[in-house]
């Protein structure tokens, strides 16, 4: 899970627009499954669940790390507060 702080967001409509765009571009670029999993009604925060399936744990961890770097580079206005990576 990735917890993001969304500074300057003033409405849930604005939050949903940003999150929806971020998730769509993330799915297309990295071929991962991603959705908002918590803090739906908190317009200053978004909690995203990101999943990747592979036979290699190293590949999955690398993909998730690449997603995190991409978020930091692509959306410097968003702050990553926490990122928990769990391999199953």
Structural notes for this entry:
The chain is an alpha+beta fold and 88 residues long. The chain has one domain: Alpha-Beta Plaits, CATH 3.30.70. Helices cover 42% and strands 25% of the residues. It is built from two helices and four strands; from the N terminus they run βαββαβ. The chain has helices spanning 12-30, 57-74, and strands at residues 2-5, 33-38, 45-51, 79-83. Strands 2-3-1-4 form a four-stranded antiparallel β-sheet, covered by helices on one side. The chain is elongated and about 40 Å long. The mean pLDDT is 89.
- Name of the CATH homologous superfamily: TT1725-like
Can you identify the CATH class? Alpha Beta
Radius of gyration: 13 Å
What global shape is seen? elongated
Q: In this structure, how is the largest beta sheet organized?
A: 4 strands, antiparallel
- CATH fold node name: Alpha-Beta Plaits
Please state the structural category: alpha+beta
- Uncertain stretches of 5 or more adjacent residues: none
Percent helix: 40-55%
What proportion of the residues form beta strands (DSSP E)?
25-35%
Series of H and E elements: EHEEHE
Number of strands: 4
Q: Could you report the average pLDDT, rounded to the nearest whole number? A: 89
Give the total of domains: 1
Strand order of the largest sheet: 2-3-1-4
What is the second-level CATH architecture?
2-Layer Sandwich
Provide a count of the helices.
2
From the N-terminal CA to the C-terminal CA, the straight-line distance is 14 Å
